[in-house]
Please model this.
Amino acid sequence: MGLTAAEGERIAALLDTQADKLTASWTDAVAAPLRGRLTRAELQRQVQDLHRAIVEALRAGAFDLTDERSADLRATLVELSRGRARQGFTASETAVTVFGLKQALFDVVDVRGGDAQVLADLLAVGQVIDDLGLFTFETYAKAREGLIADQAEQLLELATPVVKLWEGVVAIPLVGTLDSARAQVVMERLLETLVETGSPYAIIDITGVPAVDTQVAQHILKTVVAARLMGAECIISGIRPQIAQTIVALGIEFGDIATKATLADALRHALRLIEATRKARSN
Amino acid sequence: MTTDVGLGEPQLVTIAADEDVVRVRQLVRTVAVAAKLSLVDQTKLVTAASELARNTLVYGGGGGAEVTVVDSGRRKGIRIVFADDGPGIADLDLALTDGYTTGGGLGLGLSGARRLVDEFDIDTAAGRGTRITVTKWAR
Amino acid sequence: MDRVPVLKIGDLLLVSIQVDMQDQTALALQEDLAERIVATGCHGVIIDITALDIVDSFVGRMLSSIASISRVLDAETVVVGMRPAVAITLVELGLSLDGIRTALNVERGIELLAQAREPETPDDLGIDLDLDRFGPATS
Ligand SMILES: Nc1ncnc2c1ncn2[C@@H]1O[C@H](COP(=O)(O)OP(=O)(O)O)[C@@H](O)[C@H]1O
Ligand SMILES: [Mg+2]
Model:
């Protein structure tokens, strides 16, 4: 943390001598901007954990946050910022938990009457706290990114419901813009549902899709081929005139894939095929 | 940091017999799971590895596969290097053509493996052996 | 080397591929199956690949060969239980498994085989029509 051994030792002592008063003042500084969204007891516990971790790291001779001996301190900070990110606090509401220590130090340490040594140490500790704050901020940002990615994925899955329409027939009504990533999720979900439900027919309804590009058309095509490899047939319904034109203009071969105007037509087609199979068997 | 299986340190499998191809598949699967590749991406990578390991054995006369977890800073990935001191490939474009085989196969190993990974690099020449490097990134 | 067991169930042969197969095991299965078809007189073969977490071009070729050999021996083959990730990968690999019948599970596979045998029964409509073409004498 950019400190000399002597500084580290002195600062650890400074933080430790009036520990209770310091953490109380620190908790106050943190509690104000959070406006009761966390209980005081909870904040106090977090602040005490952090205080203990900082003192221990300094005592262990860790003068840098990347130091091996700072592992515990890092873990405490990571846990704190992840928790805040998950609970929906902002970045500054998270960082204030660390910066509150500065405020508390000025409350507890006698700055006016203090000698030059104490002032110098306070400056040095200010640097340390800035480092810790930055680290917290970075961890917070990473955690947020992860959360957002997870949510995006969940939304993606919510937006692609696969429904069992009939015994042996599942349907996936696609609504909205299909990009390549979503098309891929759709493909996997559909194929998984075929296995789960043992349905040999799948209807891909694209009535609600305004446009397709080459990639998306390819994804749909690959889904159909993959389904065939697994022993299931896909029927595509609701192809808009513009999309039909795009498909032809792009030179994409839909070959012998069954296409129907509406979802109802597609279901009727599937039921007819199921009926034909049943007749063939009972003959 | 126990999840970083093999991060930085390559794991080596010698390819000298049929069962080594199976071992390559198993190692690649383990590493792909640890690097958190999606199930489909795991399957694609293991399939590509199976194709290339078999080529190393059958056409390269044996060699090795080196599996490494790599980190681009933004995401993790798996890099596999297949190397042999066999006859090499004289006409690479031809070998990479779907359906081309000199061994009665389907001729989809090289071309298919290339489609299954994110990065595909091949270093070969007649009489100089073959070295193929593939990378698949976690999404 | 492991051998894949071939079970006779009713008038069908059932093969459940359970192991991560070596190439030699796959070739042995091909031979075993041909012998069992002749020995049992079965007309249907179900190959269950539910347990396979990858199918590469070698296994793909084996499945095609089995289907072709069985057909020569008057038996139909159905491959059942292919996992979604495997199917997606095969599409990318470029393997079409032409000429292989597939079904989602063993039950559907049995149905498909029953259907496949139908047209060969003598009272089938198709045969009547064919015979009609040769003139009224046969009708
Ligand atoms: N490691 C290698 N060394 C030499 N030749 C190779 C190697 N890998 C592939 N080849 C050549 O490239 C051809 C195509 O390989 P591949 O696409 O895997 O098809 P297949 O294995 O079915 O022959 C092989 O038939 C062989 O001639
Ligand atoms: Mg090959």
About this structure: The two ends of chain B are 21 Å apart (CA to CA). The domain at 11-137 of chain B is CATH 3.30.565.10 (Heat Shock Protein 90). Strands of chain B lie at 11-15, 63-71, 76-84, 119-124, 130-137. Residues B 51, 54-55, 105, 109 surround magnesium ion (ligand 2) (CB under 6 Å).
